[in-house]
Amino acid sequence: MTTSTTETVSTDVLVIGAGGAGLRTSIELAKHDIDCLVLGKRAHGDAHTIWAAGGINASLSSLDPEDQWEIHAADTLDEGHFVNDPTAVEMLCRRAPDRIRELDEWGMDFDRTDDGKINQRYFGAQSFRRTCFVGDKTGQALMDTLVRKAKALGVPYRENLYITDLVEEGGRIVGAVGFDMDGGQPVAFDASAVVIAAGGHTSLYRRSSSRPDENTGDAQALAFNAGVPLRDMEFVQFHPTGKVTPEAEAGHLVTEAVRGEGGRLYNTEGERFMRRYSPDQMELDARDVVARANEQEIREGRGTENDAVLLDISHRDDSYIRERLPRMVEEFAEHGVDITEEPMEVAPTAHYAMGGIEVNFETGQTQIDGLYAVGECTAGVHGANRLGGNSLIETVVFGEVAGAHIAETLGTRPDAPLSEAVVQSHVASQEVLAAADGRHTPGDLMDRLRRLMWNHAGILRDEDGLIDGLRQLQHLQAGAEDLSVQAGRTSRRYERAQNLRFMLTTAETILRGALERTESRGAHARTDYDAKDPSWRQNIRCVPVGERDMKIDVEGAGTPSRRVQRAVDEDHELDYHHLE
Fold this sequence. Notes:
Blueprint: E1 7-16, H1 20-31, E2 36-39, E3 56-57, H2 69-79, H3 86-105, E4 120-121, E5 131-132, H4 138-152, E6 157-158, E7 161-169, E8 172-180, E9 186-196, H5 218-225, E10 230-231, E11 236-243, H6 257-260, E12 264-266, H7 274-277, H8 287-299, E13 309-312, H9 318-324, H10 326-333, E14 344-353, E15 356-357, E16 371-373, H11 390-409, H12 420-435, H13 442-456, H14 463-479, H15 492-516, E17 538-545, E18 549-556, H16 562-570
Parallel strand pairs: 1-2, 1-9, 2-6, 9-16
Antiparallel strand pairs: 3-5, 4-5, 7-8, 8-9, 10-15, 10-17, 11-14, 12-13, 13-14, 17-18
Helix pairs in contact: 1-4, 1-11, 2-3, 2-16, 3-11, 5-15, 13-14, 13-15, 14-15
């Protein structure tokens, strides 16, 4: 029992995160009649999943009969520069078609070919058209479908609920503690299993495709603080095309679907510059390649006055653009830009975290009993760079895997009720933070951290910058011990103070991993080690030590199965010029 000031909730399975990964996990649990509760920091259905606009991958062969799941796996490994977890990749690609058909059965309104098949479009670095889509609102359509299915199955959820700590007893996770963001009341959750599905950490950067108070590394820091290693944290994907204006929307995503439908990149000299960087794959090369090309053009003075390049799709028919890219048409029209007639200003933006919580993908389990993780918060599927269209399919593939495993094993788990003393120690920490009367505001430290990460662990990195970044991070960590909060748990300032706790931990793992990896691979680009080193086909693990420290471990990456290796050796590649 906890004190009367703390609400206590009991459930068999607690799911932290109400986006695609959390919802698909809960749907699988509900199908097996397992009691679960889904928690979200925002209103139900308002998750970062909705921002994934362009599509969701599966080798359906709707347009290209040659495509197979093994080639999808080969493309994923190639894009990830072969530091992916090959088991995870093969599970993802083999199971993807069934998950797409399932979504179709549940009413997801996929675009169709003339003969009624689920349509598929080109996406960067893919050998065939395998990206299924709903215009340029695919993530929203996925969320709508999953929310509708979860409600039909009676899955309970709580919105506006912030989890601050996991609760461990006897070497296993037995619940969590947080607070109600509407009423401010502390809440303790007693659960036999906990699933973390709370997204990534790209809001650590000055320009990000996330909203400012989302994707702040909550999931990664929760797991790390509970004793779970984080993996591949140096790999952060910078999407080539984020908005630059208006300032309030800087970094918001301009979907890859624009380039998938034939969009072209130009500098201010009128040059279609991808001919210099990637003459074969052009604008549809890997995201890291296109992002660095855009950044190089801007740095060398061939960008706009807003430090951007130009993305133009106006050569396509107006009706085609409006049909395939309705969201982009609407969003730019709100600010006086007609993309059917004129180009968009775009620049790289922090978009996706390839690194995260270490899990066994065959079960979804972490190394701590009772704790699972699903979706962007995990590491292993994407390696050094994510293939566009793989993020949404990851959520539903591994949500089903984790949910099924929990349902199968839940009855074997020992009952371990929450300790009142442990819960109250976490609640007391909330009280101390809310009353903090120091010199630094959470918002100021978050802004400084985001500038630090953009400048020292951004698109281009080097040893001196990373060392200086770690030194500056130590100052910010000290500043976080002297916060000025003095606000209730319903305030934005208090929420940001909690965000800052998580962000500082996660930022340190990124900086340390980036300093350790003395090569350039995928999204990790070191100007002082500007080539890929075969000896670095390894994974870097940040392992928690004691209360506040961490150590770095390195282990070799796995090898794919023979049938996937054959697909790799066949060297399939997109013929970009189909779009010309």
